C-alpha cells in the first residue's frame, strides 16, 4: 500500500509548502542533494512529513507539511538548505512555483469511504 | 519552459486541493476519466488552475487551485465528478490523501531570484 509515500499528518490545522518544479536535463548533483534535504528536513522542528513525485518529463511536485509558518521560515533559513536552494535556482530547475498554504481539512481513502470532506 | 504544467494563479489568498494518490495497476478507464475531469474542472466557477504529476510507480500528486472553499464544495458536488470519485475509490486508487488548504503566500523562480517568500 506504499504507505511510506504518504505523510502521516495530524488533524488540521497545519501548514503545507507546495513546490511544483520542472527539472533541467542532467543530474548536476541534484539527486544526492535532494535525498539529503529530505533527511535534513525531517530533523527540523515542526516537520510533519513530505509527499513527492516526478514524471519522466521531469515535472515534479513536492509537498512538505509543517506545524507552523515559523517552522517553515526556520527551515528556509537553514544554512545547508539555503545552499541547496541556490543550486536549485542556478542549475536544477527550469522553473518552479512555491506556495505556502494552511491546511484546513483533510481526509484519506478509500478506507474512509462515505466520510465528509 | 513547460509553462503549461504550472497553474497561473493570482496573488493569494486562494485555495488549493492537494490530492496525493497511489494508483492500482491497470487503467480501468482511469486515463479517459482523468482527462475529462481536468477539462470539466476548468469549466467550473472559481477554478484557477491545476498542477499534476505521477511517477513510474504510480504515485501521483495533483493540486487544483480555486478562488474559494465554496467553489471547491460545488465541484465536489458536481454529478459527473461524483461518479468519477466513486470509481476512484472502488477501482483506481490503492490509497489517497486529500487536503484542502488556503494559500497564503506564493512565489516563482528562478526569475524571482532574491525575492522573499
UniProtKB/TrEMBL annotation, chains A, B:
Gene3D superfamilies: 3.30.70.100. The lineage of its organism: Bacteria, Pseudomonadati, Pseudomonadota, Gammaproteobacteria, Lysobacterales. It comes from the Bacteria. Residues 14-85 form the ABM domain. This is ABM domain-containing protein. InterPro entries: ABM_dom (IPR007138), Dimeric_a/b-barrel (IPR011008), Jasmonate_Hydroxylase-like (IPR052936).
